[in-house]
UniProtKB/TrEMBL annotation:
Residues 1-105 form the Integrase catalytic domain. InterPro entries: Integrase_cat-core (IPR001584), Retrotran_Ty1/copia-like (IPR039537), RNaseH-like_sf (IPR012337), RNaseH_sf (IPR036397), SH3_retrovirus (IPR057670). It comes from the Eukaryota. GO terms for biological process: DNA integration. It comes from Sesamum latifolium. PROSITE patterns: INTEGRASE. This is Integrase catalytic domain-containing protein. GO terms for molecular function: nucleic acid binding. Pfam families: SH3_retrovirus. Transmembrane segments: none annotated.
Length: 249
């Protein structure tokens, strides 16, 4: 939005404490900047800023969840997201924000995957200690050239330029884990109707009940059993003296 003389631009912001502080208001007065604040509960009046804030929040959430770093590194992730958006082309303007501000195109040679592992050379240590340590890349320092690294063993953040990044292997391993998770989550469909047979009750039909009484053979069949036993007796003297009937019962 332009001022009354159409010669200056003045910011439109909400009523947050960072915009209503005495230091910020004094800074605006010293530099001749006019400011305007939106009414409470009207984020639609600054939809461009709200949309950009949502984009940054989505980027930070995605970076933190993918790299599995502690939530205390959300500030480093936010700085990385802002840096990427400032050097990324946009449809709204023909130039990137970095090119508009610095007057030259941005360089993309130094970009690294945020959160990727890297072997960083140690500057001091004993002669028998390892010459490098496995750390995680978390950003770019503003005061000096190099990279920000996090050492999970010592739990320290430091700046270094001597590092070997393991981006390709790290991304391929994460992609392989995602494929395994997707394959394990795919289970064959289970037909519940095939193993379930409902019981049908028909009115008027008595339910069969098994008797618990002991079953006995009728007496009229006793003669058959006695006859079968008598048929086994030897018929001749030779049969009686043979091996089959030699034993005296």
């Amino acid at each position: 939005m332009r001022g009354p003389t159409a010669a200056r631009l003045f910011p439109l912001s909400d009523r947050g404490g960072e915009y209503l502080s005495g230091e910020f208001i004094d800074y605006l007065k010293e530099n001749g900047i006019l400011s305007q604040w939106t009414p409470p509960g009207t984020p639609q009046l600054k939809r461009v800023a709200e949309k950009r804030n949502r984009t940054l929040l989505d980027m930070v959430r995605s970076m933190m969840s993918f790299m599995k770093l502690p939530t205390s590194f959300w500030g480093h992730a936010l700085e990385m997201a802002v840096k990427l958006l400032n050097i990324a082309p946009s449809k709204s303007v023909p130039q990137t924000p970095y090119e508009i501000w610095h007057g030259k195109p941005a360089s993309y040679k130094y970009l690294r995957v945020w959160g990727s592992p890297a072997y960083v050379k140690r500057l001091v240590g004993d002669m028998l200690d390892s010459r490098s340590s496995l750390c995680r890349f978390i950003g770019y320092p503003k005061e000096t050239a190099g990279y920000y690294f996090y050492d999970p063993t010592e739990q320290k953040v430091f700046v270094s330029r001597n590092a070997v990044f393991l981006e390709k292997g790290f991304l391929s391993d994460n992609r392989r884990d995602e494929v395994l998770i997707e394959e394990s989550s795919k289970e064959p469909p289970h037909d519940s109707t095939a193993s379930f047979e409902p019981t049908v009750h028909i009115d008027g039909v008595p339910v069969l009940r098994r008797s618990t009484r002991e079953s006995r053979v009728p007496e009229r069949y006793g003669f058959v059993g006695l006859t079968s036993q008598l048929d086994n007796d030897p018929k001749t003297y030779r049969e009686a003296m043979s091996d089959r009937f030699g034993q005296v019962t």
